[in-house]
C-alpha cells in the first residue's frame, strides 16, 4: 500500500495513513450527494465520500458515525483532501481484516474481490495452513460474527479461487 501524506509539518509531509486503511469519522454535511466527513484520526484534513464511492442503498444523516476506506489523496488549494470509499473492494478487504482473526493473522489470504455495490460481493480466499479451511475461516469461523459483517457489507459470498459453482461457496448472509 502507498503511504498517504496527511499533514504538513516543519520538515515536510507526515505520513499518517495508507491506501486501503479503514477510517472512521462523523458526517459533517451532505452536499449534492457527497458526504463530508470529520475523521476521528485526522481532524485537520478534509475527507469526503463522493457519490460514486457510496453504496446507494445506504442512507446517512449529518452527525452519523461512518466507516470508509482511504482510496486516494487529492491536492487542493486548501490542502490535501482524502477521498474515502464504501463501494471499493478495498472497503470489503479492510472489513474482513478487522473482523476475521484468520485474515488478521495472515493464515487466510484474500486473493480477489468482485463487487456489485449494494447487491453482492464475492471474496476468493486461500489458506496458508492446510489445517485451516479458508472458506470457513473467512466466513465466520473462530470469533467472527457473520451478523456484524452482514451489517457492514451485505450479501457476501466467500469462495476458494477459481470456484465457479455457487454451491461450493459459504455465504455470510442469506
Folded structure, characterized:
- It is built from four helices and eleven strands, in the order E-E-E-E-E-E-E-H-H-E-E-H-H-E-E.
- With 174 residues, it is an alpha+beta fold.
- The strands form three sheets. The protein has a five-stranded mixed beta barrel with strand order 3-4-5-7-6. Strands 8-9-10-11 form a four-stranded mixed sheet. The protein has a two-stranded antiparallel ribbon with strand order 1-2.
- It is elongated.
Mean pLDDT, as a whole number? 76
User: Beta-strand level of the residues, as a percent range?
Assistant: 35-45%
Strand order of the largest sheet: 3-4-5-7-6
Regions with little confidence, pLDDT below 50 for 5+ residues: 142-148, 164-174
Write the layout of secondary structure elements.
Blueprint: E1 3-9, E2 12-18, E3 22-31, E4 34-39, E5 46-49, E6 65-76, E7 79-85, H1 89-99, H2 101-104, E8 108-116, E9 120-127, H3 134-138, H4 146-152, E10 156-159, E11 170-171
Parallel strand pairs: 5-7, 9-10
Antiparallel strand pairs: 1-2, 3-4, 3-6, 4-5, 6-7, 8-9, 10-11
Provide keyphrases for this structure.
174 residues; alpha+beta; four-stranded mixed β-sheet; 11 strands; 16% helix; elongated; disordered C terminus
Question: What's the short version?
Answer:
By secondary structure, this protein is an alpha+beta fold.
Amino acid at each position: 500500500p502507498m503511504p498517504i501524506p496527511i499533514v504538513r509539518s516543519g520538515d515536510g509531509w507526515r505520513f499518517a495513513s495508507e491506501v486501503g486503511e479503514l477510517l472512521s469519522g462523523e458526517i459533517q454535511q451532505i452536499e449534492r450527494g457527497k458526504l463530508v466527513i470529520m475523521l476521528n484520526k485526522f481532524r485537520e484534513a478534509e475527507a469526503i465520500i463522493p457519490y460514486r464511492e457510496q453504496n446507494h442503498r445506504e442512507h446517512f444523516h449529518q452527525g452519523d458515525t461512518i466507516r470508509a476506506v482511504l482510496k486516494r489523496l487529492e491536492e487542493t488549494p486548501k490542502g490535501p483532501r482524502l477521498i474515502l470509499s464504501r463501494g471499493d473492494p478495498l472497503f470489503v478487504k479492510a472489513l474482513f481484516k478487522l473482523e476475521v482473526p484468520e485474515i488478521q493473522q495472515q493464515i487466510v489470504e484474500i486473493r480477489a474481490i468482485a463487487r456489485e455495490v449494494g447487491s453482492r460481493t464475492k471474496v476468493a480466499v486461500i489458506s496458508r495452513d492446510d489445517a485451516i479451511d479458508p472458506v470457513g475461516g473467512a466466513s465466520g469461523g473462530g470469533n467472527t460474527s457473520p451478523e456484524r459483517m452482514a451489517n457492514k457489507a451485505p450479501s457476501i459470498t466467500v469462495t476458494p479461487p477459481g470456484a465457479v459453482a455457487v454451491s461450493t461457496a459459504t455465504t455470510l448472509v442469506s
